[in-house]
Specification:
mainly alpha
Length: about 180
Amino acid sequence: MTEAHPTPEPPSSPQSNLTSEDGQPFLNGQGTWIRMQNFWRMMTGSMSPSGQKQYWYDADKRYEDTHCKRCEESRDYLLRYSPVIRFMNDRIGELGGELNANNIRCMRCVKGGQGGGFDPHYGIRICANQMQSRKQTEDLLAHEMVHAYDHLRFKLDWEKDLRHAACTEVGQTGGCVSNY
């Protein structure tokens, strides 16, 4: 089961405010012809920047259930069969942590390049609409599990000391955190 998180609507520009350098707007509607027109505008680079944002928002929203289902299937498979994910999960378990489908969540995220994240209160978030393959999901999950391990092993304080977050991001937690 996926959790719905509100995603802000991207700003839309009325057609009357467009100039020739802005490009063509995103066309609202779910009909096949309208989708084809929007797709063509994206492919040819003739859609305005605000139209491009709206295009990706619309696509992500339309395919949210499909993306999340695929992500959850990958997550469950990786937790069972991936050597690196099982290894990291075992190490996290030795420190008293537990990662499973209840705190590794797949959801749609706003475009922006981030594939997921770790939050010590929430768990691991996987941006389902950013994952293109099981291998990419495995890489992201392993990366976020390192943050979970570092959090448990080194008692990181993510909210009060940004150096802790910086240290775990560059993989220098052991030596880095103990220096502060």
